[in-house]
DNA sequence: GCCAACGTTGGC
DNA sequence: GCCAACGTTGGC
């Protein structure tokens, strides 16, 4: 992290869910949802680095394979109640709104500006960081207007 | 501590 | 349904 003016600004993320297990519709219905069940150390590290107010893309893996909405981190990492053992954590995410137009994985893979997106480079990781540039780019693709709203 | 076997995730 | 990527487990 640099000491540039935006070093303290909000961070951006992408979280994946299989719609069979937990879909965007359920997220919208619940409004605030504990993001539990992460059992991967890299993903856990990312969860632990999340700050209240950070934004995350909500991505449907397996079926859909597209970004369908935006959520905000409503509560920072705490012990995952669904974990029987181990140091696992979860965060609470709050619905911000749906992508006006879902951004598909195929579209992102075809986009040179997104060639080093962690979603693409590490396809099995369920919680990945998104750079501010990538965030803005993907928001443009999806017609998202609320980039800087809070 | 190495590495083969195996399990899981997730794209195609 | 298949397979690549990658994490975990267990024998040595």
Automatic annotation (TrEMBL):
Pfam families: EVE. Residues 11-140 form the EVE domain. SUPFAM superfamilies: PUA domain-like (SSF88697). InterPro entries: 5hmC_binding, EVE_domain, PUA-like_sf, THYN1-like_EVE. This is Ubiquinol-cytochrome c reductase.
